[in-house]
């Protein structure tokens, strides 16, 4: 399909049909709906996919810390578990992530921001699902791979060489960002421009391999623990996929409220039945129920918190807005990694309570989150990005700013704005 035909189909007049100067024509094209831009399907979709590649790396690097922590605990024993090192490793990882969110949130639009703006050029009614598939689904896929890779590495090195194994697992995390470099260099800027985590999702994923050590027989090889963690993390994928479609069908707000409410209910049920689940012979049931719990977390907050954070602000501040929101999400995850070990320690030698306490706290927070989302979040439509930009433009005009040059190359060069 030619560009002229695409413009005709989208009811956007060709450049020669605009009156006035080249600058006036540029303004008219810039203020047209994003879905009307003369691009093919691949040109519209490629920036979304490129952003998703970076978030896959985010998921892997955050998830693999859990397996590394498990290996360090086995290597150093009480020297590691009885010291501050136990929480220092995941804490350092999350501290770096938070700083990165804040730094790049101010410096430029992050991965999720770029994906959100790119989906504005896609077909209405499908935008939320593609945003989620390029963001939360990619993060979840990174978490699944972050448990699968340590299983393969430990099988290859053997449990007598865990010092090499944990270093290999971390080193492999450099490959996705390097592959992303090519994608980002070849990705075009979209019309609008000129990365999401909650307490239970990250914390449960990070400690999945550690918890399974409690349930599996003491003589089970470590690779089985990582394999079980892979199975549990895999439940995130169908949850993220279902939530992606529900976000378009019923809206992000109701998808979030419904998903996190059901997650809390399942979590309370697991808390009550944990004494029955905490048996090596019933590890399959534990995996299924924990998987459902985590999948519902993806249907609700996992899929939708990034969508809210990246679509509820205008283009000039979207990167900063999302960066702050994502940093707070990582703070919640950091609190989870710090609190969960304390909850387990508070249970003493009672293995049942060691499993019940984290589920009880997380389930309570799920219900609390559902209430906050119900009363505090707005409904997000398919055109929210364009609506927020229009509101910002009206705000500027009401306060005496001249917006006639907004969107032109000259305006961007003089002001450094992305609008």
Automatic annotation (TrEMBL):
Single GO cellular component term: plasma membrane
Q: Which Pfam families match?
A: Sugar_tr
Task: Give the membrane topology.
Answer: Multi-pass membrane protein
Q: Mark out the compositionally biased spans (Basic and acidic residues).
A: 1-11
Q: Name one GO molecular function term.
A: carboxylic acid transmembrane transporter activity
Where this protein primarily resides, as one coarse class?
membrane
Location comes to: Membrane
Keywords, alphabetical: Membrane, Transmembrane, Transmembrane helix
> What domain of life is recorded for the organism?
Eukaryota
User: Annotated region Disordered: where?
Assistant: 1-22
Membrane-spanning residues = 46-72, 92-116, 137-158, 164-185, 197-216, 228-247, 254-275, 281-300, 321-344, 356-377
Cross-referenced InterPro entries: MFS_sugar_transport-like, MFS_trans_sf
What name does UniProt use for this protein? Answer: Glycerophosphoinositol permease
Q: Which organism is it from?
A: Cladophialophora chaetospira
Name the lineage: Eukaryota, Fungi, Dikarya, Ascomycota, Pezizomycotina
